[in-house]
Design brief:
The structure holds two protein chains of two kinds. By secondary structure, chain A is mostly beta strands. In chain A, 0% of the residues lie in helices and 52% in strands. In chain A, the strands form two sheets. In chain A, strands 1, 3, 4, 8, 9 and 10 form a six-stranded mixed β-sheet that branches. The two termini of chain A are 15 Å apart. By secondary structure, chain B is mainly β. Chain B starts with a strand and ends with a strand. The chains are: A mainly beta, B mainly beta. The A-B interface holds A 32, 34, 36, 41-46, 49, 51, 89, 91, 93, 98-107 and B 4, 6, 31, 33, 35, 40-45, 48, 55-56, 58-59, 91, 95, 98-100, 102-108.
Chain lengths: 114, 114
């Protein structure tokens, strides 16, 4: 299953399938990007990050892809499990020193169908 | 090692009352950030503090909102004369240095104004 940017805020995927969540970021000066997972009633939980000098980074079952040309970020989750059901948030941070704030997208709600 | 601790988890205030939200950063973290999440919206940056200093308050409403991070004790986000529109989840995050050295969120305080 695949979502497109923030215009499709929900995504349903069969358990065991791979999922792709997309995010279009706005600031061309951003050079650090993070994906967070937010479960109902909880705070955002760090999943994976990537800097602008990379275009791909892999973690455990997750891969983040960065396309700076079109300002696009994606999160791939392999072999989805019921525990992956959550809202996934992308965040960006610009490179200027001292600017420590993150700008978040609205998020995509991922539902894993058993 | 306890994570970022926020209290209370839930807070109900009547219109016109004051709300005080507390955040204890992770051990060894000296940078604190406050974010607000309105219903069905993304996380919005409010303020960034270091011990005894406000570094960036560009996201704070001009009136009624204030934040501090004293030399001793937790960071406090204070909202005076609350209104219904202040109802939201308020999240605190902390980091040891810069945003890309590990930015950890707490579980949030859910403020309801009645």
């Amino acid at each position: 299953g695949e979502s497109v940017g923030l215009h499709l805020p929900t995504l349903s995927v069969q358990e065991g399938d791979n999922s792709i969540i997309n995010c279009a970021y706005s600031n061309s000066a951003s050079d650090y990007f993070i994906w967070y997972k937010q479960e109902s009633g909880k705070g955002p939980q760090f999943i994976i990050d990537i800097r602008s000098n990379m275009d791909k980074r892999q973690g455990q079952r997750v891969t983040v892809l960065l396309n700076k040309t079109v300002k696009h970020l994606s999160l791939q989750i392999a072999a989805t499990q019921p525990g992956d059901s959550a809202v996934y948030l992308c965040a960006e941070n610009p490179s200027n020193f001292g600017n420590e704030k993150l700008t978040f997208g609205t998020g995509t709600r991922l539902t894993i169908i058993p | 090692n306890a994570g970022v601790m926020q209290n209370p988890r839930h807070l109900v205030r009547r219109r016109g009352q004051e709300a005080r939200l507390r955040c204890s950063p992770m051990k060894g973290h000296s940078h604190v950030y406050w974010y607000r999440q309105l219903p069905e919206e993304g996380l919005k940056f409010m303020v960034y503090l270091q011990k005894e200093n406000i570094i960036d308050e560009s996201g704070m409403p001009k009136e009624r909102f204030s934040a501090e991070f004293p030399k001793e004790g937790p960071s406090i986000l204070r909202i005076q004369q609350v209104v219904r529109g202040d109802s939201a989840a308020y999240f605190c995050a902390s980091s040891p240095n810069r945003v890309d050295y590990g930015y950890t969120f707490g579980s949030g305080t859910r403020l309801t104004v009645v």
